[in-house]
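2024-03-11 09:14:02 INFO worker-7 job=invfold-0412 stage=load source=structure_tokens
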């Protein structure tokens, strides 16, 4: 009884195995029918079937499914190695993808089957032109001739090979090198639309946003690429380089806000050193550095920083203003007026600029007047008695009667000395002079303003009186109580 049961169980297993085997065979047959239908159609040699296959290839190309098109064409050729149209279509698709070596072989095979075909010969010629142009474009790129390289890519390679990914990526690199960042974003966007996970396109598009100082968007591109490939060296370099730049820039700004200006200077310089080519960001770093250096009284260094900012953006009003302030520190009065006047013209409603311009113009005017203290050889803190002593000494030294051989020079020097004493010996005039008021407001013209002695006699008399006269009397006997000369 046990043997019977065992026999029945075995029969059941065998039966189930048989059923399972039949099912598997039918499944495989069905798959073959589905997958090999294009091949069967091609082998049958029926025009309608081949046409349907080629039509499907055309539809795949239209929606840019080039891999599917090539797979179908490969299957057709494998099924019928004499199907010349499949070779021609495959050669054309491969040419558009700039898979030039494979494409050339397919054209040559087609021409073996269809010798002298003018369309194939023309496309083969285009292939060779495109391949040569792509090689030339890369050579020019390496040599730094970006404009010429871009011409080869646009006018030859992408004309004959419009789906060439290598050429498209090279074009984006060239646009970046030419600093046409908006076009680089647009072109790399087309690539990502076809393949959103293209790592090189993500990297290049991120760099374009980076150089436009759109750092948040740039970081998102770098992060997406790193999620796809965490070890991608160029993406890592771009991502961490940007993070470091932002950290350094933020540190500089924080130190300015805390009043730690010297630390801010070092941070600004450190940020600028990270990427000298990042002009859209560096222009603001240069300007901020110039501003800090002005506050520190480092006029010369501030001018250099503002020059850098203006080299990037010549219309930057704040840089003109800060450079004007820096030139005041270096006593370049004319330069300060020029910069501030230019800034005022660009922003006529800004009262702060107008006030700065007025200060610069006043400083220029002061710089152009006579320095009476210097003429008398005294300091601005000299007492009245010191001014008198200096004057007596110089008046005696340069009196024309004592300088017969160089009388003209002596007369000029004497006038200057007398004019200086005229201002500095009068407390009210001296105070007004020290405040920077115009000399003409004091009744003095240039070179002493109306103070023109005529030592030859005639005209009015002007008397300088000194208590006790000149030491030792007049010339040859000293001046008793004073001296006079005509003018």
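2024-03-11 09:14:09 INFO worker-7 stage=emit residues=487
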């Amino acid at each position: 009884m046990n043997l019977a049961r065992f026999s029945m169980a075995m029969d059941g297993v065998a039966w189930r195995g048989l059923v399972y085997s039949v099912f598997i065979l039918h499944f495989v047959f069905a798959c073959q029918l589905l997958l090999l239908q294009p091949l069967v159609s091609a082998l049958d040699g029926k025009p309608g079937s081949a046409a349907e296959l080629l039509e499907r290839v055309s539809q795949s190309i239209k929606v840019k499914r080039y891999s599917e098109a090539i797979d179908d064409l490969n299957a057709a050729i494998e099924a019928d190695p004499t199907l010349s149209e499949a070779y021609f279509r495959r050669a054309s698709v491969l040419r558009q993808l700039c898979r030039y070596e494979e494409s050339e072989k397919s054209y040559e095979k087609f021409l073996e089957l269809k010798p002298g075909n003018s369309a194939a010969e023309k496309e083969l010629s285009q292939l060779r032109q495109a391949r040569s142009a792509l090689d030339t474009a890369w050579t020019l790129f390496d040599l730094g001739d970006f404009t010429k390289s871009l011409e080869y890519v646009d006018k030859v390679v992408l004309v004959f090979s419009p789906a060439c990914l290598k050429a498209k990526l090279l074009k984006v690199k060239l646009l970046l090198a030419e600093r046409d960042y908006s076009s680089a974003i647009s072109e790399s966007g087309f690539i990502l639309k076809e393949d959103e996970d293209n790592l090189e396109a993500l990297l290049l598009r991120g760099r374009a946003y980076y150089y436009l100082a759109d750092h948040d968007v740039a970081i998102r591109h770098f992060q997406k690429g790193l999620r796809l490939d965490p070890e991608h060296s160029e993406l890592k370099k771009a991502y961490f380089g940007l993070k470091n730049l932002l950290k350094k820039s933020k540190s500089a700004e924080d130190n300015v806000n805390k009043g730690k200006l010297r630390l801010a200077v070092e941070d600004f310089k450190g940020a600028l050193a990270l990427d000298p080519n990042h002009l859209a960001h560096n222009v603001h770093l240069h300007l901020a550095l110039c501003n800090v250096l002005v506050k520190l009284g480092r006029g010369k260094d501030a001018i250099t920083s503002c020059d850098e900012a203006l080299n990037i953006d010549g219309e930057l009003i704040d840089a003109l203003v800060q450079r004007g302030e820096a030139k005041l520190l270096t006593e370049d009065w004319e330069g300060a007026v020029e910069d501030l006047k230019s800034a005022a013209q660009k922003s006529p409603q800004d009262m702060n600029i107008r006030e700065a311009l007025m200060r610069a113009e006043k400083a220029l005017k002061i710089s152009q007047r006579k320095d009476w203290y210097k003429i008398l050889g005294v300091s601005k803190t000299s007492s009245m008695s010191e001014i008198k002593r200096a004057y007596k000494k110089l008046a005696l030294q340069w009196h024309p009667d004592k300088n017969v051989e160089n009388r003209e020079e002596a007369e000029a020097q004497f006038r200057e000395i007398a004019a200086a004493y005229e201002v500095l010996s009068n407390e009210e005039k001296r105070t007004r002079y020290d405040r920077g008021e115009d000399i003409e407001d004091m009744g003095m013209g240039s070179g002493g303003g109306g103070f023109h002695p005529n030592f030859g006699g005639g005209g009015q008399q002007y008397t300088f009186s000194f208590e006790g006269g000149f030491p030792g009397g007049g010339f040859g006997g000293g001046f008793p109580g004073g001296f006079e000369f005509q003018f």
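2024-03-11 09:14:09 INFO worker-7 stage=report msg="The first helix runs from residue 2 to 35."
2024-03-11 09:14:10 INFO worker-7 job finished
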